[in-house]
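INFO  loader      accepted 1 record
INFO  loader      residues=155
INFO  predictor   begin
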Amino acid sequence: MVDSNTSVKTESVEGTHDFGRRLGSVLAAGDLVALEGDLGSGKTVLVQGIAEALEVTTTVHSPTFVLHHRYPGRVPVDHYDLYRLHGMEWSDAGLDEPAPDSITVVEWSDRAGVLDAWSTVRIRLEVVTERKRRLTFLKGPDRVRAVFSGQTSRA
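INFO  predictor   done
INFO  writer      dumping tokens
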């Protein structure tokens, strides 16, 4: 695991989505991606790009009101949103045992402190302007860090 902070800026919703596709292309079953960021920072858009890279064909939307969606794809995507949860309520979402056969992506991961230890990847998203976002790599393997440093294919 590499813990060197590296950031990228996206210029639009499409840019954040495209970055998610590049990120999704290097994720592997068993990865738990913890996303941190304020409302409107692009977390769900990033997840949509990740899902596209994993050949998810159904519409990916924020699971805020149901907490969890599982999307079938080349590798299944378990998408959690902990925004409405506090304290230990997150354990009722089924997140106490992330599936080793899927990629788990958690929005508002800071609501469950244990995710700092469980996550294989941590990313912070920030609003720069109405359209621009900053995505900061906080933790993860070299294959993910390479996406942030532009060392992977952009295909």
